[in-house]
Amino acid sequence: MVDSGLQLIHTLSATPLGTEMDSRSFTPPLALVLSLLLLLLLPSSVNPNASPRRAYPRSPIRFAEDLIRDLNLQPVIQEIEGEQKGDDSSSPRLVEKRINLEILGESGSDIPIEQLGHHAGYYRLEHTHAAKMFYFFFESRGKSSDPVVIWLTGGPGCSSELALFYENGPFKIADNMSLIWNDYGWDKASNLIFVDQPTGTGFSYSTDLRDLRYSEKGVSDDLYDFLQAFFREHPKYLKNDFYITGESYAGHYIPAAAERVHRGNKEKQGLQLNLKGFAIGNGLTNPEIQYGAYADYALDMGIIGESAYKSISKIYPLCELGVKLCGPSGVIGCLASYFVCNSIFTSIMLLAGDMNYYDIRKKCEGSLCYDLSNMEKFLNEKSVRDALGVGNKKFVSCSPLVYEAMITDWMKNLEVGIPTLIGDGIRLLVYAGEYDLICNWLGNFRWVNSMEWSGHQIFAEAPMLPFVIDGKEAGLLKSYGPLSFLKVHDAGHMVPMDQPRAALEMLKRWMKGNLSEGGTITAVVDM
Ligand SMILES: *[C@@H]1O[C@H](CO)[C@@H](O)[C@H](O)[C@H]1NC(C)=O
Ligand SMILES: *[C@@H]1O[C@H](CO)[C@@H](O)[C@H](O)[C@H]1NC(C)=O
Question: 74: which DSSP letter?
Fold first, then answer.
């Protein structure tokens, strides 16, 4: 759920929770469970109607702040040196510059490199005190009429540059810090935006802590303001199809953003955005169902045995209760269920040892489970920072501050708004690499399959069919009308990193409206 979900593990293993877990006995520690139950049953003392924009400070947030202090984490929101404090120019503005990074290899495009627009920019967010949102915009290596695609990385609090450099961006970083064209970058088929959000993530920042966001409402309002500014600056793309995509915790952001854009369109706020669909890769969308799938997935994949399965499964009813108490607007229940439910995951990980929870075939190497250090090195080079116009702002892949601020958002169910969206013909693709534990395909499959919408029955009964690329089965696909689910073979959490070709092909076919196109359907596969 965490993209480069270092954050989840990092936080949990550093809190008392981690120490109370005994690796030799995986029964949930009774004292812990009882205290969390107590917490759950406490009447929520916090005003649930408080506007998320005014939600700071409130008790769980103070709790989160204490956590941050305990963990000795530094807030990453900091001023850009030399910039005026309290820049309160109320008129929103976009500062975008063309970047000319040297890229080795062949772009594979008919468009000469000099004409291929690569941009980086900051947008001063409307409706904030001093927030500036950072983004990259890569014009398509195909045609300018290609759809506009925005990518959101999860965390919460992890930079979308993780995907840019390691998954589906136009280029990758070599060990000697050179950039090399990515033959399967999503900019081959789209005009591609990577944005660092929520505020405080990656290069996006504010000098005012009141700009921190605590819920999907705040996050999606900011993203909507960002999109409005982007299309105002680039009106020629307004007529293009528009898709919202991303991964991991973006299983929360994406449906919320799609809803926000759709509502803006319906209510004729601002520019009409030509939203055609949204795609969630290995996401966290419906926690109640997805946390129920952990033990099943771990058992199926041989990560845990029968007896551990039985013990760990005993935690689930309390997790489920907590998620129910959390509901759409809870606070305390959300916090308690965050800890209870994640103890299911940590219990599995205690048995799994040094397994990479994003790809169970691999070992977790280093604190991030993958070595992503080249990116931080690259983005902190002075020449690169100058080229991007980010001043002296230090780049951090994942922000603990943003993560903690979003802690009561974690257990919220973002499935609830989806039936309306797909009912209005906006397409949804949920895809998942089969070897990811943390946002595994099974939990995603279950929520998609059980979602109530007008096509529910037909979707539920539809067969899983091979997703074929060049005569080879690259995954299993289930589709009906605007809804598709794809289980991707030989991939972990980061599908475009592990299966770049399949991921690009998936994007192209989905945007064209037919994921099975080009594939010969030869067999019906049992799930
Ligand atoms: C850096 O690495 C890339 C890819 O391995 C290679 O093509 C390039 O020549 C190297 N550049 C330098 C300056 O060594
Ligand atoms: C999608 O493509 C497949 C294979 O080419 C074809 O059989 C199917 O009818 C197409 N579906 C739609 C909805 O066009």
Answer: P
The set of catalytic residues is 248, 436, 493
Q: State yes or no: cis peptide before 57, omega within 30 of 0.
A: yes
| 236, containing H or E segment | none
Ligand nearest to the CA of 102: 1
d(CA 46, CA 376): 39
Nearest-atom index, ligand 1, CA of 177: 1
- The rounded distance, in Å, linking the Cα atoms of 472 and 109 is 26
3-state secondary structure 371-411: CCHHHHHHHCCHHHHHHHCCCCCCCCCECHHHHHHCCCCCC
Distance CA 6, CA 337 (A): 20
From the number of C-beta atoms within 10 Å of its C-beta (0-12, 13-18, 19+), residue 183 rates as middle
Q: Which two tokens stand for residue 68?
A: 């941050």
Which of 178, 180, 378 is the best mutation target for the ligand 1 pocket, counting ligand atoms within 8 Å of the beta carbon and taking the most? 178
Reading the block at residue 441, the tokens are 């395909």
67 vs 328, more confident: 328
pLDDT tens readout for residues 237-288: 999 999 999 999 999 999 999 999 999 999 999 999 999 999 999 999 999 9
The model's pLDDT over 329-372, given as tens digits with 9 standing for 90+, comes to: 999 999 999 999 999 999 999 999 999 999 999 999 876 799 98
Q: Looking at residue 87, what is its pLDDT?
A: 47
Domains of the chain: 1-424 (3.40.50.1820)
Q: How far is the CA of 380 from the centre of ligand 1 (A)?
A: 20
User: Which H/E stretch holds residue 95?
Assistant: strand 94-98
Instruction: Point out the ligand 1 atom lying closest to the alpha carbon of residue 105.
Output: 7
Give distance in angstroms: CA of 280 to centre of ligand 2.
23
Pocket of ligand 2 (CB under 6 A): 514, 516-517
Ligand nearest to the CA of 174: 1
Q: What is the pLDDT of residue 6?
A: 35
Residue 436 pLDDT more than 60?
A: yes
Nearest CA to ligand 2 atom 1: 517
Pick the ligand that lies closest to the CA of residue 374: 1
Q: Do residues 207 and 86 touch, judged by C-beta distance below 8 A?
A: yes
Could you report the per-residue pLDDT of 80-92, keeping only the tens digit for each? 333 444 444 444 4
**Residues 45-92: pLDDT tens digits?**
333 333 333 233 334 444 444 444 444 333 333 433 334 444 444 444
Q: How far does residue 174's CA lie from ligand 1's centre (Å)?
A: 7
Say how many Å lie between the CA of residue 179 and the centre of ligand 1: 9
pLDDT for the residue 146: 98
